[in-house]
Each structure stands twice: as structure tokens, then as C-alpha cells.
Amino acid sequence: MTSLPLISVTDGDGATARRSSMPPRHLADLDLAGRRSAVSDLGEQAFRATQLSTHYFGRLERDPAGMTDIPAAARERLTEQLLPKLLTPVRELACDDGETRKALWRLHDGSLVESVLMGYGDRVTVCISSQAGCGMACPFCATGQAGLTRNLSTAEIVDQVVYLAGVAQSGVMGGEARRLSNVVFMGMGEPLANYNRVIAAVRRLTSPAPEGLGLSQRHITVSTVGLVPAMRKLAEEDLSVTLALSLHAPDDDLRDELVPVNQRWKVAEVLDAAWAYAARTGRRVSIEYAMIRDVNDQPWRADLLGRLLAGRLAHVNLIPLNPTPGSKWDASPKPVEREFVRRLRAAGVATTVRDTRGREIDGACGQLAASEVEG
Ligand code: SAH
């Protein structure tokens, strides 16, 4: 596999550097109590924390000029200290008549990450990144090829959602204001490898305004390659988020190659952890399976997968493989895909095929690589 220089930051002197560090503190890093004490520490009255939070989470307002209920001097100090600019938009691409939009952001240290906004009827979903790059090295995923730069902070995760909720509200999708309803942690990174910040982000996204964005926990999906201890911990968080498990192969031989972390936690262990999550939360686990021609799409693998999942609180989401730079792999032909679906359903396993939203703008699953070079 060739490794592509997907994330490179050019220094002032022209040398390529990979500096990376966590960003300044932002109000979305803190719960409301934490914000109140941060505001007091700045010598302002604690209720200003609620005002700031109402602007940010309730009104999706990030411009201090729009926060006229806070006196100018306090506003300046508070926004400088608690609303630093975390995401600088580098590029926004749209397709599907504006219903799919990919945003590329630069973070304070020059790292690049992407998010994708997708409208489907009355549902508006944002797919967000939890890390700059990814350390999981799955060979069919563009993000995996670049390696990990760093974890995102809680606020860097939350701010992608708040920003794009504002974009949806502004009327650019189909000419009308749309309300963001769903969040999927399926952008760049392995969310469970940045566990504490991701959990804090989920809490911010689901706490009612002004503490948070007030989304339903059920409308949040956390996707993982299968970090078993973290999956077990997630089950104990008392959150009803949907867990997606990127399985991609029902047998260890192949999964060791497609999802290298399988060398540590095998298919049987990872499925056990998924069933423990389902039992604890009552939530159906989504089994993600990229359909790769002649690699994992054989009828016998469908049958094996069907046996592993039959009778479980699970459904399968097949993802036609999206092309990534330098990859030798291809999506399965449609008749092969249909036969795979037929066999899973015959085994009693609910199965859907995901649409390939965002392919033209490299915004589909596995295509997020944060390259600044125009494609
Ligand atoms: N690291 C997490 C979340 C990010 S990926 C995870 O792996 O679950 C989101 C989904 O896209 C995962 O199911 C991933 O396996 C899948 N994916 C990655 N590359 C893909 C590609 N080239 N085509 C289709 N799906 C892909």
C-alpha cells in the first residue's frame, strides 16, 4: 500500500512540519457548572455562562457581535476566553443539489479534519470526525492510510456539529431552514480511541439547551472498529446512543487483514461486547460491512455472518466500497451484493444497503483524508 502525504503542514520557512497540540479551552469543553466557575474566575458574573451558552447552543450564534445582551467589555473578554475560534473553514463542497455538503476545516495547529452534512427528507445528519487522522490502519479506508495526528478536543468535536447545524438552519439545503437531527461519529478517526472526549461531546450534544444542543441520544451513532474494553465501558455510561460496529468480515483470517485491531480482539470477542451493549441499552447494534469485490463478499461469508447474527439485537448495514486513492479494491458487483443481502435476510437478519452519498466530493465513508489538494 502506498502511503500518501495527505496531511502535511507547511511552515513559514517552507519546511514541512507536523506540529500538533490541543486547542485552547472552549465553553463546549465544560458542562454548565464548569462554565459558571470559568466565568467567575474571569471576574464576571456566573449567569453570563448561561447567556453565552444560550447563544452558542440555543441560537447557534458564534459571532460576539450578535450577543448584544452581554455588555461589550465583558463580551469581548468572555468570547476571547471561552469561545476561541476552533475551526477555520478551508473549503466547502456540495453535491446532490446541496443536500450533501462536505466541510474541510483547519484546526489551530494546522491539522485538517472533515465533516459531512446530509439531508434526507425530514432527517438532517452530520457525520463528524473525532480525531485528526486515525491510527487504526484499515487498508481500505483513506483516513487509515494517513495515520493519527492527534485526538480532537471535546469542543472541536462539538463545534463541527454546532457549525453545521447553523449551516442547515441558514437555508442552504433545498432553500429552507432545516433542523439538524442526527449525528454519526463516522468521519475521521476512531471515536473509542478518544473515549473521554467523545463521551463528553455526546453529553454536550444531548443535554438540553443551554447546557447543550438537546439532540436525542437515540439519534447519535458511535461507530467503532471494535475496541472491546471501550465498548464495554460505553455500555456502562447510561447513554442510549446507537453503537455501530465496523465488522467487514465474519472470520478472523480476513478481519485480521481488513481491520488490523482484530489481531488484538477477535470477531467472537467483539461480537460478545456488542451483544453486551445491546443487552444493557436495549439498542439494536448496527453491523457495518463494506462490500469489497472478491474479498469479503462470497456467499459462504454471508452465511457465516448470518449464523453469527441470527437472533441477535442487530442489523447489517452493507456499504458498497467507496474508492480511495491508491487502493487495489473495488465495490462488489450489484448481483453479488443482492445475493449477500438475500442470504442474510434468509438467515433472519435485518439488512440494508447504505447509499453512497457524497462520493463525488470524496465525502463518502472511508474517503475522508483531509487533503488540501483539489481533487
Ligand atoms: N473508526 C470508526 C469510524 C469511522 S469510519 C469505524 O471504523 O467504525 C465509518 C465507516 O466507514 C466504518 O464502518 C468504516 O469501516 C467505513 N469505511 C471505511 N472506508 C470505507 C470505504 N472505502 N468504503 C466504504 N466504507 C468504508
Automatic annotation (TrEMBL):
GO terms for biological process: rRNA base methylation; tRNA methylation. It catalyses: adenosine(37) in tRNA + 2 reduced [2Fe-2S]-[ferredoxin] + 2 S-adenosyl-L-methionine = 2-methyladenosine(37) in tRNA + 5'-deoxyadenosine + L-methionine + 2 oxidized [2Fe-2S]-[ferredoxin] + S-adenosyl-L-homocysteine; adenosine(2503) in 23S rRNA + 2 reduced [2Fe-2S]-[ferredoxin] + 2 S-adenosyl-L-methionine = 2-methyladenosine(2503) in 23S rRNA + 5'-deoxyadenosine + L-methionine + 2 oxidized [2Fe-2S]-[ferredoxin] + S-adenosyl-L-homocysteine. S-adenosyl-L-methionine binds at G189, E190, S223, S246, L247, H248, N322. It is an enzyme of class 2 (transferase). Binds 1 [4Fe-4S] cluster. The cluster is coordinated with 3 cysteines and an exchangeable S-adenosyl-L-methionine. Residues 1-22 are annotated as: Disordered. Keywords: 4Fe-4S, Cytoplasm, Disulfide bond, Iron, Iron-sulfur, Metal-binding, Methyltransferase, rRNA processing, S-adenosyl-L-methionine, Transferase, tRNA processing. GO terms for cellular component: cytoplasm. Pfam families: Radical_SAM, RlmN_N. Its main location: cytoplasm. Its cofactor is [4Fe-4S] cluster. Reaction proceeds by a ping-pong mechanism involving intermediate methylation of a conserved cysteine residue. Belongs to the radical SAM superfamily. RlmN family. NCBIfam families: rRNA_mod_RlmN. PANTHER family: 23S RRNA METHYLTRANSFERASE, RADICAL SAM CORE DOMAIN-CONTAINING PROTEIN. Specifically methylates position 2 of adenine 2503 in 23S rRNA and position 2 of adenine 37 in tRNAs. This is Probable dual-specificity RNA methyltransferase RlmN. It comes from Catellatospora chokoriensis.
